[in-house]
Specification:
single chain; 399 residues; mainly alpha; Hypothetical protein af1432; 2 domains; 18 helices; elongated
Length: 399
Amino acid sequence: MRVPLNELLYALSRGLDFVEQEVLGVTQNHGLRTAYISGRICRAMGMSDIEVLDMACCAILHDNALTEYMMGSSPEHFGCMQQFIGHCANGEKNVKAFPFADDALDVVMYHHENWNGSGFHQLSGNEIPVRAAILRLADNMDLCLSLGDNRASLADEMRDHALKHSGRFYSPEVVRTLVGILDSERNFSRSLADPNILLSLRRDIPTARADLGTAEMIKICNRLASIIDAKSSFTRDHSSRVARQAYKLAPHFDIGGERAGWLVIAAYLHDIGKLSTPMHILDKPSRLNNNELAVMHKHVEITGDLLHGVPGLGDIVDWSANHHEKLNGQGYPNGYGENELSMEGHIITCCDIYQALIEERPYRQAMGHGDAMRTIHEMAYAGELDPRIIEVLKHETTN
């Protein structure tokens, strides 16, 4: 397995966009635009390829901890979510799981510092790390101006906004650098448009020199699972538990070595599409109606869409995206049957169902092990699940 770090983060950015749209009302591709602007400013300031790449990666990840604050707050308080200083500290902690080539310390931690000292931590001027100051401008400018629609006035709006807040919110040096880019590149603002932004990143932001192997992916995806599951208190650690169960089952079905690692990665990522599911559905204290069920079911398609764009994942995409399919063809989203489903993917399905049953949900209490196994045996009897996997799962969860 060799997975480009850039492409993995671009996929994650699309997932985090759903969260930021729900919490902050930002527009689509906010993370990608923030990464592009930040990277281009770093390049214009003479930074190395490594520094530019790491800046772009930090920018994509800058609000990765917002899911934790969705879990801790009610929807009516989402509008003031940025007042929680903790999302910077927890975001910084999550970022440290990623293999940056240089010292990206404090970029996410201090990305809400204002040049005049009025930010979260009250750092001012040159106390603020340079790349944190760059991220502050890029993040806030897209939040304020919605830079993705390619309107004719956009370059002028960006210039006016930056100059207006220079020395107050933004570093004067960073502002001068951005204005220089806008003055010298007629099409810079066009590069930020929704249809263009991913192509712009691939064209202008350096690619990581070394792709990620299986061991690095396991470490990163473990952290991604924490970010995904933190969106609701009812799913906290769910994906990590599914991954642990799947790993225990793997050797019983001759799945070993690197392939067992791929199984763990797929289990970590299987619910990445739930970043798109609104909180009022995830945490509804009663059964979902048909419209809400349709929205909930959509998360598996989004999992597939997000992961399909990442080169090098191979079978992991289908193992993750098929976790609600059943052997009798009665699952979703595609109604695949036994001949279309892999053993690895079906192991994730069985572990996911068991883990969900023994976890509390907003509309029911957690089941005990015995009740959960009886439910799963009934599903196997109905032809939905493989009884061989269920027997091993029973053994592994009893001992």
